[in-house]
Amino acid sequence: MNHASFVQAENARVDTGRHGRCGFPEVIFCEGKTASEVASISVVLAHTAGVVLGTRASRQQFDAVTAVLPEAVFHERARCITWNQANASSDNGKVAVVCAGTSDAPVAGEAVVTLETFGVEAMLITDVGVAGIHRLLAARDDINACDVIIVVAGMEGALPGVVAGLVEKPVIAVPTSVGYGANFGGLAALLGMLNSCGSGVTVVNIDNGFGAAYAAATITRLLHRK
Amino acid sequence: MNHASFVQAENARVDTGRHGRCGFPEVIFCEGKTASEVASISVVLAHTAGVVLGTRASRQQFDAVTAVLPEAVFHERARCITWNQANASSDNGKVAVVCAGTSDAPVAGEAVVTLETFGVEAMLITDVGVAGIHRLLAARDDINACDVIIVVAGMEGALPGVVAGLVEKPVIAVPTSVGYGANFGGLAALLGMLNSCGSGVTVVNIDNGFGAAYAAATITRLLHRK
Amino acid sequence: MNHASFVQAENARVDTGRHGRCGFPEVIFCEGKTASEVASISVVLAHTAGVVLGTRASRQQFDAVTAVLPEAVFHERARCITWNQANASSDNGKVAVVCAGTSDAPVAGEAVVTLETFGVEAMLITDVGVAGIHRLLAARDDINACDVIIVVAGMEGALPGVVAGLVEKPVIAVPTSVGYGANFGGLAALLGMLNSCGSGVTVVNIDNGFGAAYAAATITRLLHRK
Amino acid sequence: MNHASFVQAENARVDTGRHGRCGFPEVIFCEGKTASEVASISVVLAHTAGVVLGTRASRQQFDAVTAVLPEAVFHERARCITWNQANASSDNGKVAVVCAGTSDAPVAGEAVVTLETFGVEAMLITDVGVAGIHRLLAARDDINACDVIIVVAGMEGALPGVVAGLVEKPVIAVPTSVGYGANFGGLAALLGMLNSCGSGVTVVNIDNGFGAAYAAATITRLLHRK
Amino acid sequence: MNHASFVQAENARVDTGRHGRCGFPEVIFCEGKTASEVASISVVLAHTAGVVLGTRASRQQFDAVTAVLPEAVFHERARCITWNQANASSDNGKVAVVCAGTSDAPVAGEAVVTLETFGVEAMLITDVGVAGIHRLLAARDDINACDVIIVVAGMEGALPGVVAGLVEKPVIAVPTSVGYGANFGGLAALLGMLNSCGSGVTVVNIDNGFGAAYAAATITRLLHRK
Amino acid sequence: MNHASFVQAENARVDTGRHGRCGFPEVIFCEGKTASEVASISVVLAHTAGVVLGTRASRQQFDAVTAVLPEAVFHERARCITWNQANASSDNGKVAVVCAGTSDAPVAGEAVVTLETFGVEAMLITDVGVAGIHRLLAARDDINACDVIIVVAGMEGALPGVVAGLVEKPVIAVPTSVGYGANFGGLAALLGMLNSCGSGVTVVNIDNGFGAAYAAATITRLLHRK
Amino acid sequence: MNHASFVQAENARVDTGRHGRCGFPEVIFCEGKTASEVASISVVLAHTAGVVLGTRASRQQFDAVTAVLPEAVFHERARCITWNQANASSDNGKVAVVCAGTSDAPVAGEAVVTLETFGVEAMLITDVGVAGIHRLLAARDDINACDVIIVVAGMEGALPGVVAGLVEKPVIAVPTSVGYGANFGGLAALLGMLNSCGSGVTVVNIDNGFGAAYAAATITRLLHRK
Amino acid sequence: MNHASFVQAENARVDTGRHGRCGFPEVIFCEGKTASEVASISVVLAHTAGVVLGTRASRQQFDAVTAVLPEAVFHERARCITWNQANASSDNGKVAVVCAGTSDAPVAGEAVVTLETFGVEAMLITDVGVAGIHRLLAARDDINACDVIIVVAGMEGALPGVVAGLVEKPVIAVPTSVGYGANFGGLAALLGMLNSCGSGVTVVNIDNGFGAAYAAATITRLLHRK
What we know:
Eight copies of one chain form a homooctamer.
Chain A: E1 7-9, E2 12-14, H1 18-22, E3 28-29, H2 35-49, E4 51-55, H3 59-68, E5 73-75, E6 80-84, E7 94-99, H4 105-117, E8 121-125, H5 133-144, E9 148-153, H6 159-164, E10 171-175, H7 187-194, E11 201-203, H8 209-225
Helix pairs in contact in A: 2-3, 4-8
């Protein structure tokens, strides 16, 4: 397929050449699209790319997709729709998804679903916030055994900096909008992570578990293609 | 002396009753005052309170003070002027001033000078940022042996939360304006500290080493009066 | 119990060593957790720490807790769940919770419930805003008789500075998100308090009654252990 | 003179009809204008309005004005240039200019110079911040004897609300950019004043002593014309 | 009645001395109070001040008030509850309430109700935004015949500056939260008004029709007491 | 009709002279108006201008309009009401409305409806975001054949700058509030567009499809009047 | 010349195909470039495009340019460097540059220099702020006789909306960073202009006189090519 | 050397175990440190790690370092000090540093110096902004041949998203503080990058060329160790 090709679906030009150019197929950001548009794009992607991933999806959108792709799956807490033509090979490396608190679970879930859709193994480690640093130290070896580390944290934007000081793997930080008062919808966590003194931390947008997983998969693919 | 009394100095009403009401004499915030005004207020405080502390002071302001109070001392990096009628007793407890990096030294210095002016012993512990957490763990027992802990941190607003998870003493956090890019003059550190998941952390204004020391001294005085 | 221990509950690593390290058991921040997760963590804390405190709790979460801990109590306005194995001793000092207006009651309530859970006596003084300063002056002696003063204020971020100028005890300020227009969810009150010229004021996050109470209890415990 | 008239000066259309329409002549905001432009406008205003007031003026601009209007006066700290054809009558009421700290003096000075230029008596009361509330209470009767009260405050945005709770006269608040850290160039004081619970407070822009004085003079002129 | 007196209602200290100190009785800010608290405070004010004004009131709160004060009135769009022992004299001057658009009606309504409760005549002039400046010019004489002018504007923060350039009366501006996109809940209008080049404009908080009316009434009372 | 005329509708002064002054009739911003007010203004505009356009309209408001103007049309996704006395001539040029994603459709729709109401042909091109730049390059000639280009983009504030580098026509950018986390209601897209290095881009308010269309029509009218 | 061509200068790829693609040659944004880089790019543009425009230039950069292009001109207040191979034809239409105050002159100057470099006639109208609306009304016919109107305003973001309500030509607004206190470097003016109720206003970045002129020239070129 | 070891230098605890834990030695952030402190830390790092990298360095700090480490090098534009015991092997992969404009050179330089210090080959590609997209397309194959891509962009936060849509390698974005008006010190570029629709982009702090290089080197080291 041509790397610059696209297919016209309902109100959308599906970028079917993306897999060739960027290594992964296009993904559907469902928020703001009608259920019918999501279903229409899903069918195009199923036929051209063999895999469908919809993020920020509602159950109503899932119902429309399942009508045309019956094997589609809905991940409720992570708010994702997935459909795979065949089981993805999982020989694409391993990524740790580290989580400061139970409340960050939906964002971490989006990262895990995305990784698995791309054939990357995900190891979820929850509740290792810096207020009880021994819980993190206990998990240190498991974390460092992965290729890349995604750190999801809300109130506690501190966690990625601490993790980066303990391991020698790339650390991708996801600020979340969870928190009291002056968190300002995740801004506090975002700024904290950007200012993290732990070298080597990079950051994605607030609540963007998908983006972190995509970036992580870009790295593991390089590693495991060799 | 009456608790509601004051004395008229050049362009200023010096609150000479403050010591009686609040336990500490009034302190001079020098920024924006003329050298002559600072000197004039210093004389009033020297005579009524027996102790002078000027923060955010310039050398020019110090020169004016030293002309009328020859024993006054200038703390250059901390930007403070001090003058004590007699050596303050130092039986007022001990406060740890913990510092993430060398760059935070001026703010930490302001805290140390303030504590010592109020007769409180200060223990300065520098360069224990979270990116190398073992440096902090090594200092843990020293820190916990103090009555109160002041944590000064810029880029790394994370430090107070980590400290608070390790000790059982009150932790007062001072964000500083040191840092790269999206630190926004200390805003990132401030928000990080306010959102710190480590319970028991309270926060003062950006770069306000004085305020943290004052609050700490309020606590140690209660402890050591008994 | 080991200070670095933890117990695995549903989706959570409960920090059972926290009491030993920090002097108080871990507390459950309920927002964003499922009812089942809150109940599961509550049971672990009941058995290991003998006391349960859940903040930002919903009635639905309380129903799940009460199914496993029948004596649990729900404080509706303060949005807290509590459960105590035995009546906490109350010989841990006394804290004033001073409130600018009736609208700040939920946040003040969270502070009061937290203090009482930790065995600290709480004295609630409401409706003493600075627009009618005589109401505050009338309560001054009662306030100054406490060990620590928590000041909760929304529109009127001015109150902590005025209180700190009248007493010689530590003052902890809690900005609230109550108010007209340019309050920006408590930001105005927060900035006002940080800039308070009354020395000795420290600040916690917006609406964080729990954090203020925790910090206050850290101080009273030091005082009354002697 | 026609109320909609204007005169062309160097790079400026001087609104000579303003006195007729609004009760006061046009005033020169000097910042960003060349010395020559300020002098040119001053001459037009001297001839048409009989009074010149330039705010935010530099000494260099004053030198240009004094070359053409030798009796012009420079108020250094207030950064104002004034020139009056004849002594303004001062039977236009009295305004209190209340000041939290010495550091707010330049802004308060701009207000005083403006009032006097408009023939309004100004009473300056400095250093009555809320951290020592007795200093304010001592000045209460003097303040309430004026027609209007201007309150200038930086760190301490609280002062106008407290004053408004003590008097029955209009209170106009001027936030200043003086202060530590999270003052953000006066934003903290501005937000504090807007959220002031003391009813009847209105606010002008940060450091805008002129605007407050102009508004106050608009009120006293109504009062004393009767 | 003593100027520093207060009465204890349900969860509230009603400032019954406020009328003596400030010229107007206390007003109830209903948001965040229970219906029962609003009713309880209303009864105290009815008995001590003879007039009740509740702003930001809900119908549920009104129902509780009407149960104890049957003649109370609910102003739905303005969200105010009022009760007057006797018809207020209306010999207290006249205030224009000028409105940029229909959408600003609720805030303008709060101002009108407040003025009338305080016995001040209100003249409402709507839909005179600057995009059709001739509509404003047509109303100019009516506006200038009032003692004070309140200008309510959302998108169009420009209106107060234009009005202030046309009249010689005090202008009080109320920014509203109405508007498209980058209005940020009234922030754009607020900043626009603060930066208004029209001298003599003062500003109150976003959507604070009450505050503007209170300030206006403070001025008209001075004028008409003479 | 006089250019400075207006007609009084329910709570509104309809600016009937606007067409003569500005080239287009007044348009109704429906948000915050009652259904009855919208209908009343619609009737005045239908009679005086021969065309009605209501933006940000609800179905309830449309029902009120259709009761008095039965041929009125409701554009659901664009949230617009339109009514035309006669089919507008469409000889007023052609405008491209370029859209980064499906989610921006409502804002693009408001632009299209506005253009058509003003007799300008609109060409809608969707889903040409910069992440798949070939889709944009494929549409380049179609875009450049229009008189003016409106670019609507949310997450991807980058699109207008890229378009402006490819064409020689005026580019008007509309930021939308669609997007993840740190988009802050369109602020990120707005700032991105303002900082666009592509010369010749101008920007309207967030989500303001109407404003962009109005500005575009102002340009095409000049072109096609010649 | 190929529309996609470029030439390598010192540290820069000069986009020599830009004239063909976008209708105007590339322009040099001088801030942050060394004098030598500016001179090197100027030479390339002089040879390929026959016209050089450098904005935000310093005198030092000009000195380097004049060494290699002796006829280059420095516009000091506008901070621009220009060099034209031949006098540009001026048959490219006429643009009004309307200015609220003398202080906005540098930004207005940048717009005028840019227009003239592109062969467009510029008519500068200064000092017509909304506080004296009659000055603007007097200039109305002159303004409306131009093809496009650029409105430059700082404190007074109101001006573009008022102008747009008076004329039927495209209005491009430039916010400037001039102003008192809460102007926040032009943010207040920017937000005011974006929220302007005058339809048809589009906005460029703060202080970006160049961008406004470029956009205006894009429109006049369309008009005068016919 | 022990992974948790450190050495006490002047006012600093040098984290000598960092190389073992994180794969790279500690780096000196010079801003805010005295020249003497920088020199003292440099000596410790030279002896323990065999490599010294100081960022945000001044010439004065370099002079102090060169006195003790004569072979140290100063990179003026990049503001870095480097010293290597031996030439680092360069068999650690290759990173593209892509730059929107000449003005971003200092930040790009910091990235290049950091990469080379860590033994990673850096390929600098300047002046490929999105306003002339053909310049970027021409460099596409060179870029995609690298292991990781760092994109440095100021005004034009759009570039990383466009690059990520063209290549299949990890993209790390660095916003810079270069730009006009509403760039707000890099905030606009930062937000634009975070909202970039190009999947796989991660972001570091404003102007943080070092951090991007560090993160990139973490990835290339994994690749080339295999």
